[in-house]
Design brief:
This is RNA polymerase ECF-subfamily sigma factor. One of its GO terms (molecular function) is DNA binding. The protein is mainly alpha-helical and about 200 residues long. About 65% of the residues lie in helices and about 0% in strands. The chain has two domains: about 80 residues, no CATH class; about 70 residues, Winged helix-like DNA-binding domain superfamily/Winged helix DNA-binding domain (Arc Repressor Mutant, subunit A). Helix 1 crosses helix 2, helix 5 crosses helix 6 and helix 7 crosses helix 9. The longest helix has 27 residues. The protein is globular and about 55 Å long. It starts with 15 loop residues before the first helix and ends in a 9-residue tail after the last helix.
């Protein structure tokens, strides 16, 4: 598949029906439909990725990987709002790229020297740590314990970085439901984490 210019097109000009038709054509292997979909959405995706990552080369690679994924998996689109679906893919590719960078950095150099108060000069942002925790470790295990509809909201709003409106469109639920489920999801997540690490009872014998 040939990829096209990385910036251009506007999210606002997509029509829900038009994008759905394009995705069906892409699923059938229509390269012209892929080009049009790219031109419609690459601009706002590039801008949004740039707000979350300062490395233009990483942004470019993530954008390319996003549309390669779309080309390969368009048949898996199940009627979600197209912008939200594309951002879900892009956000996950960005997480993958950051993890790959971290692995490469660990292999390439010595451990970072801690700064005062136990902080590190090149530590990941709080958001990066949350994103990693939702996939791996105790937070990931706890996430698997909460109800599927709450887990879906937490993944959409935290892992994929969608706004309340975008998450509502992606999941097919009202915005108020997204907010209420997000609150319940956090409460259930705290409970699940407590079950994974219960406080020891009693004192020493």
């Amino acid at each position: 598949m040939r990829l096209f210019r990385p910036v251009g097109g506007q999210r606002e000009k997509d029509g829900a029906g038009g994008d759905a038709a394009l995705l069906r054509a892409v699923a059938a292997g229509d390269a012209a439909a892929m080009a049009e979909l790219y031109d419609r959405h690459a601009g706002w995706l590039h801008a949004r990725l740039t707000r979350r990552c300062a490395d233009p080369e990483v942004v470019r690679e993530v954008l390319q990987d996003t549309f390669v994924t779309v080309w390969r998996s368009a048949a898996g689109h199940r009627g979600q709002e197209t912008g939200g679906w594309l951002w879900t893919i892009a956000a996950r590719r960005l997480v993958d790229a950051r993890r790959a960078q971290e692995r490469a950095a660990r292999l390439a150099g010595p451990p970072l020297e801690p700064e005062p108060h136990g902080r590190y000069a090149a530590t990941a942002s709080a958001e990066d740590r949350v994103l990693a925790g939702l996939e791996y470790g105790d937070v990931g295990a706890a996430l698997d314990r909460i109800s599927p509809e709450l887990r879906a909201v937490l993944r959409a709003t935290v892992v994929d970085g969608l706004s309340t409106r975008e998450a509502a469109r992606l999941l097919g639920i009202p915005e108020g439901t997204v907010k209420s489920r997000a609150r319940r999801a956090r409460a259930e997540l705290r409970t699940a984490l407590g079950h994974l690490h219960p406080s020891p009872l009693g004192g020493t014998a």
